[in-house]
Amino acid sequence: MSLRLKLATGILLSGIAASAASAQSLVYCSEGSPEGFDPALYTAGTTFDASSHPIYNRLTQFKVGTTEVLPGLAETWDVSEDGKTVTFNLRKGVKFHSNDMFSPSRDFNADDVIFTFERQKNADHPYNKVSGGTWEYFGGMSMPDLIDSIEKVDDYTVKFNLTRPEAPFIANMAMDFASIQSAEYGDVMMEAGTPEMMNQAPIGTGPFSFQAYQKDAVIRYLRNDDYWGDAAKVESLIFAITPDASVRYQKVQAGECHVMAYPNPADIQAMKDDDGIVVMEQEGLNVGYLAYNTTVAPYDNPNVRKALNMAIDKQSIIDVVFQGSGQIAKNPLPPTMWSYNDAVKDDEYNPEKAKEMLAAEGVEGLNLKIWAMPVQRPYNPNARRMAELMQEDFAKVGVTVEIVSYEWGEYLSRSKELDRDGAVLLGWTGDNGDPDNFLAVLLGCDGREASNRAQWCHQPFEDLIQKAKVLPTQAERQPLYEEAQVIFKEQAPWATIAHSVVYMTMRPEVDGYIVHPLGGHIFNQVGLSQ
Amino acid sequence: MLNYVLSRLLTFIPTFIGVTLISFAFIRVLPGDPIIVMAGERGLTKERYAELEAQFGFDRPIYTQFWEYLTGVMQGDLGNSFVTKRPVWDEFFTLFPATLELSACAMIFAVVLGLPAGVIAAVNRGKFFDRALMSTALIGYSMPIFWWALLLIIVFSGNLQWTPVSGRISLVYYFQDATGFMLIDSLASGQKGAFASAVSHLVLPTIVLGTIPLAVIARQTRSAMLEVLGEDYIRTARAKGLSPGRINGIHALRNALIPVITVIGLSVGTLLAGAILTETIFSWPGIGKWMVDSIFRRDYPVVQGGLLLIAVMVMVVNLTVDMLYGVINPKIRKR
């Protein structure tokens, strides 16, 4: 039943119930409320869906559906020979949105780029402390150390001077925190004494302009008819915030939404069987793992770690914990990432052999703590259940498992400790589609006592990833990352468990939706057939 | 009566200070550091952590933090949310009308159905109607809200398509919130069909949220009525030949109302607790879900400010109930 027909029958049947908005409005049932609308202030995907994707652009951008980096507000860029200077040549004629408080007097230019990054970098910048600016992503991607200075060469040329060569920098410029803000809007709001409006009434250059937000209920956007790229196909975009997954499903069925995110794994089969619903799927750019503490005996011995990995029945975990919405991970990189080494062979599930290997290493009566995360994540929808399954698996090879858990903040901070007792269940979702964002962050020597939960520092691996980081082209970097994955597998600092499969559910009239591997929900290219 | 009200108001002050202290302490007693929760899996360097700690004021002694909070509260400043960066006060008053509207409708639903049901059950004590009503009330009281809500959505919104699935109004209507009460705003907007849409969106959440108070009020009214109906003065009234309607409606019900009003007052707390689930399921933008999200994120200003405001509301409701006792039973206000 078409949305319009549904609308008509809805009103007829009840006399009062109206359905979703007009055919030229795309209604997306989102899972939660954005924290705000300035993407640089936040880290949550829900916030980026509502802010950076519809409202803003970045210097570079990811091609939707891939991790390929394309020109954005920068048409071209040049990297100096030493890799320490990146010059962006900016696009001309790009218009900022306007609202009740602001009409731009000029097009986008170099001042906007400098404003966007200086407010995050420079503690003395008037916008640095506005809206309690913590700039977590800017800091998390090491930008304060990496960017030495930003220079305006002319109105349409900006030069970034870096402290070291860094190949992923171009991809980092496509990340949400790098969304370009209007310096002019910043000035106007500062003068009006309402600088926080940049976060509440956003102005960008993106395919949709922000219209209104009713907290925890509805976000409305209008198509930006002056957009520099391909204009959005629908006149307006509406986010109907619907926290419960079963209710989102009902709303799609009832025609109150066109698209919904994060279906319940248990509902997916019924959705696939329903002719009135289209289900799309793609491997997520993430990995769920069990990280041993490689600094504590006997887990400092790769053979012991390898034996333990062979005791884990990963297929059962995929069936029970992911209910099919996941796939077995053999590498620390997800399969959708360039340089994924498919030639690597996963450790076979063989409890007998694992038992023998443990005995050969003189390990007997081992007691292991497994840390189960208290929160749900795509890479691990139920850590407690996963830990229980591992407990059973390890019991078969004579290893006694105690499952521990802490409140999420405690979990994150205690699991970083160098002398931590036990193996930690955790995972990672990619930020910029670059292998460095997984291998260096999660397994590099600098990450110990931080995001490297295995506390693993293995020089041959470290040399490869450090070398790959500064090479200029993907072709040169790829073999190094492939080799690094082979070393990882031999050394087994983690048991790689799973990559999630991301599902998107929509009505048949939705046209052109593409599941994005970086996890965002993007509607620029989506239309509605009648 | 004025002395009575004033004496009740005086008890407000220590309660208010106590609640301020408890709400401040409560969220800090829970394990979990808001800065670490905010950074998530990505983590922070030690230097960055220290900077943020200083920015949020966590590096100062706890009594200094409390004193600053208390002085802020006295000046009407509850601080800004760590997450949205907006004033807690603004967020509360953006969301509170939605909760109030839903709770009021649920309470009206519960009272309008529960009072007569209880009276009728008491008058027909032991008969089929009494038993059927009380069994239904017990089922209503025991029903898990989550399950009940989804069942109603599947039947009435999914299969029958009589009501919308969730939200406060259909997305075709768009107007600026004037009061935050959707029934009023939709009427004031002048848009055709907007008010009807707002009403239709209220139906299921009202039933879900009102079910437990309805059951409690029906059962309480019945037992209070039964007690009163056994009193000597009712026998006297009957002996005088008064009509059953007059006896039950005026002599019995008025005296049975005191415990019923107590239950209604106490139900306000239940409604707010139930609102958390109801609001989540029906995507109702109220304070219930706001508070739960804030507890998970360790958003200290929102949790402590929200708890304080909710506590003040419950205190005001209790005060109103106390005053109503006085109106219904003059003996109480003379004590």
TrEMBL record, chain A:
<dbReference type="GO" id="GO:1904680">
    <property type="term" value="F:peptide transmembrane transporter activity"/>
</dbReference>
<comment type="similarity">
    <text>Belongs to the bacterial solute-binding protein 5 family.</text>
</comment>
<feature type="signal peptide">
    <location>
        <begin position="1"/>
        <end position="23"/>
    </location>
</feature>
<dbReference type="GO" id="GO:0030288">
    <property type="term" value="C:outer membrane-bounded periplasmic space"/>
</dbReference>
<feature type="domain" description="Solute-binding protein family 5">
    <location>
        <begin position="68"/>
        <end position="447"/>
    </location>
</feature>
<dbReference type="InterPro" id="IPR030678">
    <property type="entry name" value="Peptide/Ni-bd"/>
</dbReference>
<dbReference type="Pfam" id="PF00496">
    <property type="entry name" value="SBP_bac_5"/>
</dbReference>
<dbReference type="GO" id="GO:0042938">
    <property type="term" value="P:dipeptide transport"/>
</dbReference>
<protein>
    <submittedName>
        <fullName>Dipeptide transport system substrate-binding protein</fullName>
    </submittedName>
</protein>
<dbReference type="InterPro" id="IPR039424">
    <property type="entry name" value="SBP_5"/>
</dbReference>
<dbReference type="InterPro" id="IPR000914">
    <property type="entry name" value="SBP_5_dom"/>
</dbReference>
<keyword id="KW-0732">Signal</keyword>
<dbReference type="InterPro" id="IPR023765">
    <property type="entry name" value="SBP_5_CS"/>
</dbReference>
<dbReference type="GO" id="GO:0043190">
    <property type="term" value="C:ATP-binding cassette (ABC) transporter complex"/>
</dbReference>
Automatic annotation (TrEMBL), chain B:
<dbReference type="InterPro" id="IPR045621">
    <property type="entry name" value="BPD_transp_1_N"/>
</dbReference>
<feature type="domain" description="ABC transmembrane type-1">
    <location>
        <begin position="96"/>
        <end position="325"/>
    </location>
</feature>
<feature type="transmembrane region" description="Helical">
    <location>
        <begin position="194"/>
        <end position="217"/>
    </location>
</feature>
<feature type="transmembrane region" description="Helical">
    <location>
        <begin position="100"/>
        <end position="123"/>
    </location>
</feature>
<dbReference type="InterPro" id="IPR035906">
    <property type="entry name" value="MetI-like_sf"/>
</dbReference>
<keyword id="KW-1133">Transmembrane helix</keyword>
<protein>
    <submittedName>
        <fullName>Dipeptide transport system permease protein</fullName>
    </submittedName>
</protein>
<feature type="transmembrane region" description="Helical">
    <location>
        <begin position="256"/>
        <end position="282"/>
    </location>
</feature>
<dbReference type="GO" id="GO:0005886">
    <property type="term" value="C:plasma membrane"/>
</dbReference>
<dbReference type="GO" id="GO:0071916">
    <property type="term" value="F:dipeptide transmembrane transporter activity"/>
</dbReference>
<dbReference type="Pfam" id="PF19300">
    <property type="entry name" value="BPD_transp_1_N"/>
</dbReference>
<feature type="transmembrane region" description="Helical">
    <location>
        <begin position="302"/>
        <end position="328"/>
    </location>
</feature>
<keyword id="KW-0813">Transport</keyword>
<keyword id="KW-0812">Transmembrane</keyword>
<keyword id="KW-1003">Cell membrane</keyword>
<dbReference type="Pfam" id="PF00528">
    <property type="entry name" value="BPD_transp_1"/>
</dbReference>
<keyword id="KW-0472">Membrane</keyword>
<feature type="transmembrane region" description="Helical">
    <location>
        <begin position="135"/>
        <end position="156"/>
    </location>
</feature>
<comment type="similarity">
    <text>Belongs to the binding-protein-dependent transport system permease family.</text>
</comment>
<dbReference type="InterPro" id="IPR000515">
    <property type="entry name" value="MetI-like"/>
</dbReference>
<feature type="transmembrane region" description="Helical">
    <location>
        <begin position="9"/>
        <end position="30"/>
    </location>
</feature>
